[in-house]
Structures are given as C-alpha cells and as structure tokens.
Design brief:
Length: about 600
C-alpha cells in the first residue's frame, strides 16, 4: 500500500483533467505533513503553478477537491498557503496494519539478479595494537550500513582489510625483540592484541628518549627523528620483511597470530562479522606490480633516486609517491592492489570504504590513480567518511597509550548497566545467569545506539554514563519498550487466556493508534533514506520515535483493562506489531532486544 504513489499519480491525472497539460512527475512532490499541521501527506502547489496559471492557494484547493472526489482513500484536505495537506481515511490505515500483522521485516526488499552489488569495507585494523573506541564506531557503522543496504535490496559483501605490514608493525616487532625476553601473551595473561600493543607503546617511549639524546648531542630535531637507532632498525626490519627474510617473517607471523586471536574475541563481543578478509601483506604485491606496470607504460614517473610517483597537478593536487626510493610500498600502493583484487572477486557496482574523515584526500587520490591506470570502475569507489570519536578530555593517541581500549570499554559498559539496573530494581526476579546476560545486552545496546544515533559525518564525544539511561534517547529506553510490549502480550495470554490472532474488521482506529500505524508505515522509506544517505542514525532516530510514541499510547490508552474484548484484542495486536518493528529496526543497528527486563 503506497499512499504517496497513489496521490502523486492522481495529481498528475488531475493536472491533465483540470488544466489540459501533461505534468512533469519530477515537479509533483508528496511528503509527510509536518506535525504542527493537520494531515498525513502534503502536496506542494508552488511547483505546479506553471500548469494551473493560478495563485498557489487556488491551485491547492482545486487539487484537493479533485483528490477528495476521485480517491476513496482521501477523507479530508486543508490548504495552508500553497501547501495542500491530505488526510487519509482511518480505515485505510487499518487495512495497512492488517497487511503487515505478524511481519517483522515487511519493509525489507528482496534482492534479485539485478540487485546492485555493493562491497563494504570496515574495521581495517592495524596489527600493532588492540581495537579501541574509534574502531568501535568504524565497525558499528560498517556492519549496520551493510545490513541497511541489504534491507534496501542490495547484494552486499562485508569485507575487512587487515593492515598487517608496514613500519608501524615493525616497531612492535622490534620492541618485542629487544624487551620481551621471549615472553608470550599466555606468560603475561594478556589478550594477544593487548600484548602486542604494549610493545608499540614501548617502542615510542624508547624512540622519544633516543631522539632527545641525539638532540642533546647537537643533532637538529629533524636529524634526530630520522637517525634514532630504533627507527633505523625498524626500517631495516621492514626492508628485510619485504625481501622475505625467514627469521623476520616467522616473528611477524607469530605476533600477528596473537593479535588475530585478540581481534576475534572483540569482534564476537560486538557481533561483528565479515564475508571476506583481505591482508595488506598480500594485496600490496598486486599494487606494487600494477604501479611498476604503469611506470613502464608511461602513466607514472620516476625520480633519479628511484621513487615512483604520479603527478596530480591537473587535479589541483601535489605529486603522490607510490613506491619509495628503496622500493618499499606506501599505503596507497596496497589500496590500489586491494581495489583491483576486490573488483576481480565481486565485480561490484559500488565499493564503500568506511574510513575516518582524516582520509578524505587519500580516497580522492585513489580514485584518480585507478582512473589514470585505466580501470573503468574507478568512479565506483565511495568513501563513507565519518567523524572522530573523542572523550570529554580530548582526542585519543595510540602512540601514547591514551586510547580507550574496546574490551575495557565493553566491560565498563556492562558494569554500568549492572549498577544502573540494580539501583532501579529492574532485574530483581532474574537468576544471576539471566541477569548477567541481560546486563550484556543492555550494555552493548547502549554503546551501539549512542554511537549510531549520531549522523556518521559528525564527531562524537562519548560519555558511557549518558548512554545507559532508561528514560532518554538511548538504546536501553528502546529495549525496555520492547520488553514492556512482550510482557504485555505474555500477560494477556497467561493471565487472561487471550489469543491475539484473529480478525478486527469492525475496529475503528483512533488518532493515537493511527499515529503508531503511520510511523510503522514510514519504515520502508526510512530504510531507503538511511541506505541512500549511508547513515544508521536515521534508523536509530526512527525506532526511538516509534518507542516514544508507543509509551505515550501505553500510558494514555487502556489495553488489558479495556472491557470491549475486540478492542482489547486489536490493541494487543497493534502493540505486538510495534514490538516486531522495534526488533527489526534495532536489528539493523546490530542491537539485541531482551524479552524481559
């Protein structure tokens, strides 16, 4: 049931009948009526004046009269300046509700052979440190937008690119080699990613110390930063790695295995998964080969010292180095190789990179280079650029060990959820095991909702305490609404022996019920908008609005205490459908909803 399409098609017909002209469909706009006006849908008359040759108010009135006379779904209309507000007959909302009863995913589009193929890359961690709060936003955005795109009918593949090579990896390796005395994560009872990350911080502590010592000996700051002994050793280690040194490769493999085991634990906690994982240690070779081929074909240039680069002056940009003078690769080299490999794997219509906004320039350059290298799909790369996550005290810094570790944050959220729930007495009748499971669901729901309710392009200042609030615009508030409805339905079945299935032909929908139905009606368009704009915040704000309206309905309208059995059944059925849509929308955000809270 598509009211907007029906109204639009009828307006086009009205213009033909009333004014004897063919209307451009693009000029006929139908939108939801603002809450401060009476009506369900609004038609803007201003863009139609060229057809009517009349003032906006008269044009709107004539169209309103035509719609009311020719469409049974229209019960009334009103005109405010040049805006025609249309009211849909309540029975139509009832019919729509009956169509979606017991269907959690009525708004989802099925994919078919012609569905666009989309690859979404997210996470992209470095194997020199554990996942932190910034990675959490990246993973949640990438996973959620993948699910939203699937719901909009796209064929989606979720991929991860692990940055498992480069100078930053060698820094952790060198510090372990110099300081660890052969110790393993098991020896120190640490997760593997935390263990390796500790040595990355230790490298930078020692590096800064060496720089200061060289400056004290008379070196300039720039000279000292280049000549610090540990940096020189790390650079040598990278060159040895690229030459396939057996000893260096063995150490690299061992340390990466420690990190991957740690990553997998964190991904599992967050509910994050991938269809395919790429490794920079493999993709950079394809990138390097393609860069060298581009050099021989004259698409790229080379300095006297051997550095390979591309001139981007015609695009208003500087030169971009693709291979260093010593032949080692840079980040964009592996991104070239990854993009080529990914297209060969998926033949994508679009490849989305979920990466922070500090890399905007990088992805512009990547598309230009691929175009220069004559890949026809170079314009299908999209950068989903998101804002940074900051703390009340400022930015996080990995080198200084001041990041908020993902595992520590999750544990803190669970502790906060436990404390808040116990203070409110919400789980007093649960067993310890049941309560702990719900604490985890609440904690992760709070974390995910707090991050995803903010537009992806905006920065976030994350405050764990604010995120766990059972009364605000939070995950726990929506989760509690779902649990309230499930409790209502259970109580109806167990205490009153009510079967909520059946027909409700004679029920009259009141205004508060109509409002709930209207919100559920908009669910498909909300998914489309979230998919188009690539931001889960639209889903989060939608499901909060639905939960808020249901709670208002619950407090103002009797449900179980309603004396008329048919009306009671209808209200239970309506409530049940709201819970299904809440669960579906929260699922698109990766958030579980507990049956009891």
């Amino acid at each position: 049931m598509d009211f907007e399409k029906t109204l639009k098609d009828t307006v086009i017909k009205a213009i033909k009948d009333l004014y004897s002209v063919e209307a451009d469909p693009a000029k006929v706009t139908v939108q939801k009526t603002r809450k401060d006006f009476v009506g369900d849908f609004t038609i803007v008359a201003f863009s139609l004046l060229a057809y009517s040759k009349k003032v906006p108010v008269d044009t709107a009135k004539e169209l309103g009269e035509y719609l009311q006379e020719n469409l049974s779904i229209v019960s009334d209309y009103n005109v405010v300046n040049g805006f025609l507000n249309i009211s849909i007959d309540k029975e139509q909302w009832h019919k729509f509700l009956k169509q979606i009863f017991d269907n959690a995913n009525f708004a989802f589009k099925a994919k078919n052979d012609k569905s666009p193929k989309v690859v979404v890359e997210y996470s992209s961690p470095n194997t020199n440190k554990p996942l932190h709060l910034g990675h959490i936003r990246n993973n949640l955005l990438g996973w959620s937008i993948s699910e939203i795109l699937k719901a909009s009918g796209k064929e989606v593949n979720k991929v991860n690119l692990v940055n498992d090579r480069g100078i930053h990896i060698c820094k952790s390796m060198l510090a372990w080699k110099e300081l660890a005395e052969g110790k393993t994560p098991e020896d120190e009872n640490m997760k593997g990613d935390h263990f390796v990350g500790k040595y990355y911080v230790l490298f930078n502590d020692e590096y800064k110390k060496q720089v200061q010592e060289l400056i004290a000996e008379g070196k300039t700051k720039e000279e000292a930063e280049k000549e610090a002994p540990w940096l020189v050793k790390a650079q040598k280690m990278l060159r040895s790695w690229e030459r396939n040194s057996r000893k260096i490769r063995q150490l690299w493999t061992q340390m990466n295995e420690w990190v991957y085991a740690g990553f997998d634990e964190t991904y599992k906690k967050l509910g994050i998964d991938f269809d395919k994982t790429y490794y920079e240690s493999e993709t950079y070779l394809d990138g390097k080969r393609r860069v060298l081929k581009g050099l021989t074909e004259g698409d790229l240039s080379q300095r006297d010292d051997g550095t390979v680069l591309i001139d981007l002056e015609e695009y208003g940009m500087d030169e971009k180095v693709l291979l260093r003078a010593d032949g080692t690769s840079v980040y964009i080299t592996q991104d070239i190789g990854t993009a080529i490999m990914r297209y060969d794997d998926f033949k994508f219509d679009e490849s989305i990179y979920v990466v922070g906004n500090e890399q905007d320039y990088h992805f512009k350059v990547l598309s230009i280079i691929l175009d220069k290298l004559e890949y026809p799909w170079s314009n299908r790369l999209t950068h989903l650029s998101y804002g940074m996550v900051e703390l009340p005290e400022g930015k996080m810094k990995s080198r200084e060990g001041t990041v908020v570790d993902a595992d520590d944050l999750i544990e803190e959220m669970i502790n906060t959820a436990r404390k808040t729930s116990e203070e409110l007495g919400k789980l007093s009748d649960f067993t310890k095991e049941e309560a702990e499971k719900v604490y985890e669901i609440i904690a992760l729901g709070a974390l995910k909702f707090y991050i995803l309710k903010v537009d992806a392009r905006k920065n976030i200042t994350f405050n764990p305490q604010e995120s766990i609030d059972f009364n605000g615009n939070t995950g726990p508030f929506v989760q509690y609404t779902y649990a309230r409805i499930r409790s209502l339905v259970r109580k109806a079945g167990t205490e009153q022996n009510i079967d909520i299935s059946g027909n409700y032909e004679d029920i009259t929908v009141d205004d508060k019920e109509k409002e709930l139905i209207k919100i559920m009606y908009s669910y498909p368009s909300v998914i489309e908008e979230a998919a188009k704009l690539r931001t889960p915040s639209i889903i989060a704000n939608y499901v909060f609005d639905l939960a808020k309206n249901f709670n208002k309905y619950y407090h103002e309208i009797p449900i179980l205490k309603e004396e008329d059995k048919n009306i009671k059944l209808f209200r239970l059925k309506l409530s049940n459908q709201v819970s299904l849509v809440v669960k579906s929308a929260m699922g698109l955000l990766g958030i579980d909803v507990p049956e009891r809270m």
